[in-house]
Design a protein that fits this description.
Blueprint lengths: L1 E6 L6 H11 L5 E5 L12 H4 L12 H12 L4 E7 L4 E9 L4 E5 L7 H4 L4 E5 L3 H16 L3 H20 L8 E3 L6 H25 L1
Parallel strand pairs: 1-5, 1-6, 2-5, 6-7
Antiparallel strand pairs: 3-4
Helix pairs in contact: 1-7, 5-6
Length: 212
């Protein structure tokens, strides 16, 4: 099993990179574990307080559960991955059943932030994109998908996204084995990555057969 961490700022193209890696690997061999599933359960707090949550701060995440579930998958156990609602700003009662696969992709803005989680990864990737490019993608996405007005998004970028990115996300680049510039548009880098991952899987398979 290979555990791959994919980090990068909001709007950097992480999802595109993840999807292209999945396409390049054998069908059914990948499980994606999104960091967004591991926001803290805040059901004990009033909604008004929950709505003030800074989702771009490390304190918003349940790190112990996150690394425990990756550990469980690594040791061959299935997990019940939590689900989160941005509407109620808390965890939902439903979970997602995830079976261990040959490749586990841990994806999120700060997936390289926590040392315990990072230490379980075989490969750490940082998807990089210029600040302007990221801002434009976030604006286009959030206006289309979430109906957010432009002025609200610009304020959010200035007051939350940019300072949090500079303080917590950008510094995790130092832990990456591979940095993919230009995010999801970098076909060459993604192809190289996918070939490398396939090669690693084949090596593991060969080792398994050799040991039997």
């Amino acid at each position: 099993m290979l555990i791959i961490g994919i980090a990068g700022g909001t709007g950097s193209g992480k999802t595109t990179v993840v999807n292209k890696i999945i396409e390049a690997l054998p069908e059914g061999s990948v499980a994606v574990i999104p960091q967004d599933s591991y926001y803290n359960d805040q059901s004990d707090l009033p909604l008004e307080v929950r709505k003030q949550t800074n989702f771009d701060h490390p304190n918003a995440f349940d790190w112990p559960l996150f690394s425990q579930q990756i550990e469980d998958l690594k040791s061959g156990k299935a997990i019940e991955q939590p689900t989160y609602s941005y509407i109620t700003c808390t965890r939902l009662s439903e979970t997602v059943h995830v079976e261990p696969k040959d490749v586990i992709i841990v994806e999120g803005i700060m997936s390289l932030y926590d040392k315990k989680l990072r230490d379980q990864m075989d490969l750490k990737i940082f998807v990089d994109a210029g600040a302007d490019e990221r801002l434009l993608r976030v604006i286009v996405r959030d206006m289309a998908e979430r109906g957010h007005p432009l002025d609200m998004l610009v304020n959010k970028y200035r007051n939350v996204l940019k300072p949090m990115h500079d303080e917590f996300i950008e510094p995790t680049k130092q832990y990456a084995d591979i940095i993919i510039p230009n995010g999801g548009n970098n076909e060459q880098a993604i192809q190289m990555m996918s070939k490398f991952i396939l090669g690693q899987l084949r090596e593991q398979e060969a080792l398994k057969h050799a040991n039997h």
